[in-house]
Design a protein that fits this description.
Layout (H helix, E strand, L loop, with lengths): L1 H19 L21 E4 L3 H10 L6 E4 L29 E2 L16 E2 L15 E2 L4 H9 L7 H11 E3 L21 E4 L4 H16 L4 H8 L2 E3 L1
Parallel strand pairs: 1-2, 6-7
Antiparallel strand pairs: 3-4, 5-8, 7-8
Helix pairs in contact: 5-6
Length: about 230
């Protein structure tokens, strides 16, 4: 009885989606068969989250840009359009199928202390298979690179570019205390917001308040604070 009812519900959902969703997008015929030019001003290797943006910005002028990607297009794969189905893309043809090395202090529940490390192999890269979650890198990592000789890569150096690219869709005025309001921006090309569920927003509010009241922990939790979702 329960199985039959479930099958009816699934069938109804499929019918609903097929009749209400817009037609599937398709890549233009021959878009990947264009002959290479004799020269380019820039060649960008990798069409992931970073490479795609770099190539787009470079092509806004008159420069000729070649963007290379080992994977194909995902435009006809409906799974990449539904964030909740991100786990189905792990170990798929859109994933490089990397594994971590054996861990000494983690992954005790995994066989040989090894786990999958999904990395996107398609236009859009890992940004297409990560449930549309967006998170900034940990400031400690950037500052460590700078100390080791990567001039210009401290968190203070890269922070303005994190802000420049984003357009936060939640109310910044609610976080006027401390320095939280100054951490975000609303005029960029990447629009982000909280998760749709109210509970997710409430949890992030707790992180905001914690960072204000405990500034000595700010750098350690700031990457958690920026876990928002692409719209």
């Amino acid at each position: 009885m329960f199985l039959g009812q479930s099958l009816v519900q699934v069938a109804s959902l499929v019918i609903f989606l097929t009749t209400t969703l817009p037609p599937n997008e398709k890549d233009p015929p021959g878009v990947f068969d264009r002959p290479l030019e004799n020269w380019y001003d820039y060649i960008v290797v990798g069409a992931g989250s970073a490479g795609g943006i770099v190539a787009t910005r470079l092509s806004e002028g008159y420069d000729k840009v070649l963007l290379l990607e080992a994977g194909g297009s995902d435009i006809e794969n409906d799974l990449t359009k539904i964030p909740l189905l991100w786990s189905a893309l792990s170990n798929s043809n859109l994933d490089w199928k990397y594994k971590t090395v054996e861990q000494k202090h983690a992954l005790f529940a995994h066989k040989d202390e090894v786990t999958n490390w999904p990395r996107g192999k398609c236009l859009g890269g890992t940004g297409r298979i990560n449930a549309m979650g967006l998170i900034r890198g940990n400031p400690i990592d950037f500052d460590t690179w700078a100390k080791e000789g990567a001039v210009g890569w401290s968190y203070k150096d890269v922070f303005p570019y994190f802000k420049k690219m984003e357009s936060i869709a939640f109310n910044l005025s609610a976080y006027s205390e401390g320095k939280k309001q100054r951490q975000y921006h609303t005029g960029g090309k990447v629009r982000t917001s909280y998760g749709r569920k109210k509970k997710a927003g409430e949890q992030l509010n707790i992180f905001f308040e914690l960072s204000i009241k405990m500034p000595h922990l700010y750098n350690k939790i700031s990457n958690l604070l920026f876990l928002t979702f692409l719209l």
